[in-house]
Amino acid sequence: MKKNVTKFRGSRTCGGGTHKNRRGGGSRGGRGNAGGCKHHFVRNYMKGMAYGKHGFKRPQKVLSNKPIVNVGELDELAEQLVQHGEAHKQGDIYHINLAELEYPIVKVLGNGRITKPMAITVSECSARAMSKIEEAGGSIEEYVPPLKEVDIEPEETRGPDVEDI
After folding, report:
1. Please, is 90 exposed, middle or buried when counting C-beta atoms within 10 Å of its C-beta (0-12, 13-18, 19+)?
2. Lowest model confidence (mean pLDDT) among 1-5, 19-23, 64-68, 152-156
3. Could you tell me where the beta strands, DSSP code E, fall in the chain?
4. pTM, full prediction
């Protein structure tokens, strides 16, 4: 059985010197965030409250949140996509339209191994992914979204303008 700590039991000041020493907030180095840049720097840094400027924020126009997939993942998921009806297989070639999935994928990247020939329709594709797919006997087609038909209503025929008198 583990024994309780008994280091300062029975001691009047528990290692704090005389009874006057631990009275005010000065004995703790100030109140609140005092000393965050000085004597409490490490404490604040470990809590994530470092003062000053650190790093930079990338501009929003540079950031992109495109849904991506690697060719290795496509190779693993090809059979499942056919079973779920989201792709079809003609002969040995898997035909996958990534833009018309339940959660559309915008770009294919070239990480991973590809063993099956695939005909993939997608908006964007990296050069490495394209070379791997073509080496495996597949092809890449660029996805062109279908145009929506716009109903153009004729302007209403109005009577002659009446000027205010």
Report:
1. exposed
2. 152-156
3. 68-70, 87-90, 93-97, 107-109, 118-122, 124-125, 139-142
4. 0.55
Residue 17 φ/ψ region, left for φ over 0, alpha for ψ in the -120 to 50 degree band, beta for the rest: left
Residue showing tokens 């280091």: 7
pLDDT tens-digit series, residues 152-164: 666 665 556 666 5
Q: Are 70 and 110 in contact (CB under 8 A)?
A: yes
Distance CA 128, CA 136 (A): 13
Q: 60-66: long-range contacts at Cβ-Cβ below 8 A with a sequence spacing of 24 or more?
A: 66/106, 66/107, 66/124
Q: Which residues contact 104 (CB under 8 A, 6 or more apart)?
A: 67, 98
Pick the residue with more confidence: 132 or 52? 132
Contact 117, 137 (CB under 8 A): yes
Q: Which two tokens stand for residue 107?
A: 């770009």
